Amino acid sequence: MLQIAICDDESYYREKLQRLISNYLDRRQLSASIRFFVSGEDFLSQSENSVKYDIVFMDISMNELSGIETAMRMRSFHSDTCLVFVTAFIDYALEGYKANAIRYIMKDSLDISVEECMDAILQKMHKAQVAFSFTEGERNLYTDNIIYIESDKHKSIFHYMETDLIQYQIYSRLDAVEQKLAGCGFLRIHKSYLVNMKHVCRVNNYTAYLDIGLALPIPRSRFRTAKEAFVTYKGAM
Question: What is the C-alpha to C-alpha distance for residues 126 and 219, in angstroms, rounded to an integer?
């Protein structure tokens, strides 16, 4: 299920975007949870929003905190969320792309632009999915939403962010999971932990600190390699 946020201080545009997005997803038999926010402050008041949403439609011109500033703060947490700026003023386009927006759409052409925008987003997301056969059945997971994977005897437990942090279990050793996720930005910090470096805030004191508030241990034998890999990854972003 896609997690989508619409942040706009005008109820007319919040509701119009919801209707257009819902119609688009219904035609493709896709499910989503769509949540409204009435201001940038409202959106940022919940820190989990930095990783919670797959797609955010953000109005640029809002009172107090602008959409640009809200988006830049969201990006500062971590987030590879697909960001779409929505506005009535073309003047903000160049500034908006500094926040790595996937699209910039005008309010007077939503009926046309939302469909093209969603096509581009889903195409991008499809490239970032990996299929696993869990005990609950076959699922495609967005790699960005995998926080970390934990080994438990002959099982691997995926800690995955949807509406809340949930778990999926697979009967597979962590070595096999690590191999399947090679090239997706995951780091083996411990024989029992494979972490997504997108969700690592810092690495020090033999510990990896994650953006969900969790700290995972790194044994002394792996610490230097883990630290160097993390620094290289952050430097390449």
Answer: 35
**73-131 pLDDT tens trace:** 887 665 678 889 898 876 655 555 567 788 888 898 899 899 989 988 887 776 677 88
Q: What is the pLDDT of residues 63-72, one digit of tens each?
A: 777 888 888 8
Tokens of 86: 């929505």
